[in-house]
Amino acid sequence: MENIRLNVSLLRRRVPNLTSAAKSIGLRPATVSNLCTGKIPIERAEVRTLVALASLAQCSLDELILRGESVEMIETKIKTLDLFSPISKGGTVGLVARPGMGQLVLLSELFYRLQDEGYAIILLQPQGDHPELKDVTEFRDIHIVHSIESASEKILSIGAEQDIIFTADRSHVLTGEIFELQDRLEGYNIKTVTTILLDLKGAVVDEDLPYGPLETLLYFDADLAARHSFPAVNPIVSTSSVLEGAHLDQNHLFTQQRARKLLRRYRELRSIVTVRGMDKLPASEQETYHRGERLEAYLTQPFYVAKKYSGIEGESVDLNTTLNDVRKILDGGTDSLDTKELSYIGKL
């Protein structure tokens, strides 16, 4: 099948207020979001939806639909990210979380890991006083800028030599400055700029289409955070354009789909067990419950930046190892292990 995908960057530049625009012409924001992240393959999109999006972006269907272009994944060696919602190199990532769910710890960890991979880190300082950013900005190699103009200058000065991770707060999305910056960088001889957007206030959690069309959305989960299962990224609803079948090898895609199905059912059963107790589950469902419990435990991971708090050395797990370990859990190879033996480890 031909490799086709939505031109998300064009949509983002042309229609920054996509939620309102989509609603105004009768499109469901959730449908548009799922098309942007690949949760709904473009082959399954209704023609009228694509025509409406092209009209909003004032472009042709040929411009809206990219053909034959691959999406490169940034392998973070963070198990739950690489398996369920890979980061698209050169794309835009949105962190959807309320304060206290661990988004800043994850951001710090990404900075730590990607610096080691040769990425330059640029952080656009949000307006106002944000003491919670202190732990994020303590790395000596982070370039902190205070305006879009400074960000543009810094990216252009180092972008020809290094891939860049650029991070900004939602306030700069609302003003449209982020999209203006991305437009401004078009045509320059720079490597890739991967943008990470966060919302320090947590208001984005209540929006239908957080940040506008993005390649990757990482939704944080209050239940996981409350149970201290970090990183508390929800593997069921987090999405990525890299997850389109044409961009993943079938081994990754099949394993990810099986894992997501198990975790979805485990969460349903967990609600029942909380109310009625384990004895009320049939034997076959108990096996599903315990395997889901083990998989959820395995997806926790020690972070390098958290060692001073946890006392546990950080762990990196490459994607192939994650896939092999997850298949082993799915197939019952860890049924004899206690859940605690799988919590906060690296590989099996």
TrEMBL record:
A Pfam family matched by this chain, by name? ATP-synt_VA_C
Domain ATP synthase A/B type C-terminal: from-to ranges: 247-319
Write out the entry's keywords from A to Z.
ATP synthesis, ATP-binding, CF(1), Ion transport, Membrane, Nucleotide-binding, Translocase, Transport
Q: What is this protein called?
A: ATP synthase A/B type C-terminal domain-containing protein
> Which subcellular locations apply to this protein?
Membrane
PANTHER family to which the protein is assigned, alphabetical: ATP SYNTHASE, ATP SYNTHASE SUBUNIT BETA, MITOCHONDRIAL
Tell me which domain of life the UniProt entry assigns to the organism this sequence originates from.
Answer: Bacteria
Family stated for the protein in its record:
Belongs to the ATPase alpha/beta chains family.
